Amino acid sequence: MQTVVTLFVAWIIGDSLRATDSRRNQISRSSIVLLVCIALAFATTPAIAQQINTPDEVDPHRLIRSEASCEQAGGFAWIVRRLPDGFRPDLVRIDGGKAAIWTGPPGTYEIDLICQVDGALAQAHARVVIRGTGPDPSPPGPGPMPPGPNPPEPDPSPDDVPADEFGNLGRRVFSLLKANASETFPAGELAALYQSTADRLTGTTTPIIPTVSAARVVLKEGHDEILEGESSAVWMTCRIEIEKVWDEHQRDMDRTKAARFIAAVGTGLQAFAD
Question: Cys bridge to 191: 108, 167, 254, 270, which one at CB 3.0-4.6 A?
């Protein structure tokens, strides 16, 4: 844009030198109007994050080369933490080893990039600076409460989710969904999947799931049926946390304990669905 302005100013000067007095006055007036328009355009252009290099610790072969191939491969890059208030996560376009982030107000933000290609995860931490004076794309706040004898109940908080023996995993899942998921996220369907899997693993309902490994297969198949597109990317942020906690307890993870673990995840999902 600066190059365009420079060329435009040079053209004005050259044309003015060649023109007559009356023509110069006309050029000057037109030039002033156009320069004002350009200045206004600069003032209202949304701020865009600068491109950042892919961090060295990330395997570049796991990163997506474009958003199109990302969708074809079932992989997504996702901003998962330290978002400004009011922001929703947005897809990050990976192209040529660089990540172009979303538009937004100026500031310096810490983000995590997560890519998934054919089931393989690649994570990266990045520091990105957004420059400019663009409008705040935050969604508007909630409107006035609708009239009526029974106003809607306030949204649940993490403290409303029951504590569990896995470091309050259900609350962590709820918090991640609260920060990253939209209203269209199929939390209710996933909650039903996790609760039914837990019940079948303990033998409360049939058909019984005989082993912990079989339960994990049931969950994976359920994920494949329920999740797609944006929902799959949002769930990936939760899955990373779930797998981390699972690894901490895996040593003594029998059927009963695994059922409690799965039920804890389902509790967080159900709280978000409600």
Answer: 270
Which of 4-18, 141-155, 256-270 has the largest mean confidence?
A: 256-270
Structure confidence at residue 15 (pLDDT): 56
pLDDT digits (tens, 9 = 90+) for 111-139: 555 554 444 444 444 444 444 434 444 44
Is the N-terminal amide bond of 207 cis, ω within 30° of 0? Answer: yes
| The pTM of the whole model exceeds 0.70 | no
Please give the Cα distance from 245 to 266 (Å, whole number).
15
Of the candidates 43, 49, 52, which has an alpha carbon nearest to the alpha carbon of residue 1?
Answer: 43
Domain boundaries, the chain: 2-44, 48-131, 158-273
Q: Residues 177, 269: contact at Cβ < 8 Å?
A: yes
Tally of CB atoms within 10 A around 170: 23
Query: CA torsion angle for 186, 117, 92, 168 (degrees, to 10)?
Result: 50
Phi and psi, residue 216, nearest 5° = -65, -35
212-260 pLDDT tens trace: 888 988 998 888 888 876 777 778 878 888 888 888 888 888 888 999 9
Residues 6+ apart with CB under 8 A from 212: 201, 253, 254, 255, 258
Pairing of strands 98-100, 93-95: antiparallel
Q: What's at 65, amino acid-wise?
A: R
Q: Could you give the CA distance from residue 271 to residue 156 in angstroms, rounded to a whole number?
A: 7
- SS3 track for 27-76: HHHHHHHHHHHHHHHHHHCCCEECCEECCCCCCHHHCCCCHHHHHHHCCC
- Residue 106 CB: number of other CB atoms within 10 A? 12
